[in-house]
Write a structure and sequence with these properties.
mainly alpha
């Protein structure tokens, strides 16, 4: 299981990082900030869908096509944890090498979006105060890492739960004869 967890966790973390980098490079920071939430979660869902593949591989190639919910969920959770550590680590490297410019750019983009949507002066003042609070909180490395982890890990947990619920049923994408034969050969 360790090899499956590590392989698919690294793959999910790499996919998440590469897609996010490419979209930011192609679309630019301003467009990405304006659509950050839905784009970010879409990228996470795409990358973390690898959890399903990892659990299925474990079920089919190592467990003869049968897996219990708990084992499937833990496998998915471990894959999600590896991917999350990579996500947090890459984000921290980015933050350390790019400086604090991200939060300033994000804050300016957020305020511009509010202005464009016709926010009142009071709403803008409240939003500015809130953004300053987040900026101060985000400058603390430990809190920033927790915030970053809280972005991706819940998505991984949800995908792990869904995958475990589906794959505990051996009739969902059943193992091929080749998969179960290779598993029997490994145990002999």
């Amino acid at each position: 299981m360790k090899k499956i967890v590590f392989t698919y966790g690294v793959l999910a973390g790499a996919i998440n990082t590469v897609i996010a980098y490419l979209l930011t490079t192609i679309a630019g920071d301003d467009l990405m900030h304006a659509n950050a939430e839905w784009v970010g979660y879409l990228i996470m869902i795409i990358a973390l869908s690898i959890i399903f593949v990892g659990i299925k591989q474990y079920r089919d190639k190592h467990l003869g096509g049968i897996i219990k919910f708990g084992k499937a969920f833990l496998t998915g959770l471990y894959i999600a944890l590896v991917a999350s550590v990579i996500y947090v680590g890459v984000w921290e490297i980015y933050m350390q090498t790019s400086g604090e410019g991200f939060i300033d750019t994000y804050q300016a983009s957020y305020m511009e979006t509010l202005r464009a949507e016709g926010a009142t002066a009071k709403e803008l003042a409240e939003a500015s105060e809130k953004m300053e609070y987040y900026k101060k909180m985000y400058s603390n490395t430990f809190l920033r890492m927790l915030i970053t982890l809280s972005e991706i890990l819940p998505v991984g947990i949800i995908i792990s739960l869904i995958s475990a619920l589906l794959l505990k049923n051996s009739t969902v994408l059943p193992a091929s004869d080749e998969d179960t034969t290779s598993q029997h050969l490994q145990t002999d």
